[in-house]
Design a protein that fits this description.
The chain is of the alpha+beta class. The protein has a domain of about 60 residues: Nucleotide Exchange Factor Grpe, Chain A, domain 2 (Roll). It is about 60% helix and about 15% strand. It has two helices and six strands, in the order H-H-E-E-E-E-E-E. Strand 4 and strand 5 form a beta hairpin. The protein is rod-shaped, with a radius of gyration of 41 Å.
Length: about 180
């Protein structure tokens, strides 16, 4: 046989082969469509997962913010009691009565423990050194003014009420007595 000779294929066999090719193309087309659908579903699922993660992060941040505000409100309320106890300590410290002195020791222990617990929650006193520090309106609140020529203008003469930071933010300014010469 020569290579230029034509081979005759039975038309029935050719038709069967063509049908198989058409079936394979159709099957391939269906598979491509399924792959596309699966990719679309995967994309939607990935989007939903990302949305859920964003929602979870937002909820966590909101919850932390709410907890911080709640803590801040509670601490502010308890600080009024602490202020009253500090006033009592100042007053009782002047007493010579031994029974009062014993109660004073217990009261000071309670205040120290309260201060430690508040510190663990992020509360920190604003440091004030009377006769050394100058008045700073960002952290101090001048509640009294006095005129003493022997001290410089603007020096803090006395700490009237403690001030506090709560998690690096000013919760309450320190109330001070300031020297004003001019």
């Amino acid at each position: 046989m020569c290579s230029t000779e034509k081979i005759n294929i039975n038309p029935e066999v050719k038709k069967q082969k063509d049908n198989k090719v058409d079936e394979s193309k159709l099957e391939f087309s269906k598979l491509e469509e399924k792959i596309k659908q699966l990719r679309d579903r995967e994309e939607k699922l990935l989007y939903m997962i990302a949305e859920m993660k964003n929602e979870e992060a937002f909820s966590k941040k909101l919850n932390e913010s709410n907890n911080k505000r709640f803590k801040e409100k509670i601490i502010k309320k308890i600080l009024t009691v602490v202020d009253s106890l500090n006033i009592a300590v100042k007053y009782l410290d002047k007493s010579e009565n031994p029974e009062v002195k014993n109660h004073l020791v217990g009261l000071k222990m309670i205040l120290k423990k309260t201060e430690e617990d508040f510190g663990a929650e992020g509360l920190k006193k604003i440091e004030v050194n009377p006769l050394k520090d100058n008045y700073d309106r960002t952290i101090h609140k001048a509640t009294k003014i006095d005129k003493k020529d022997k001290y410089p203008d603007g020096i803090i003469l006395e700490l009237e009420k403690e001030g506090y930071y709560f998690e690096e933010k000013i919760l309450r300014e320190a109330e001070v007595k300031v020297n004003k010469i001019k």
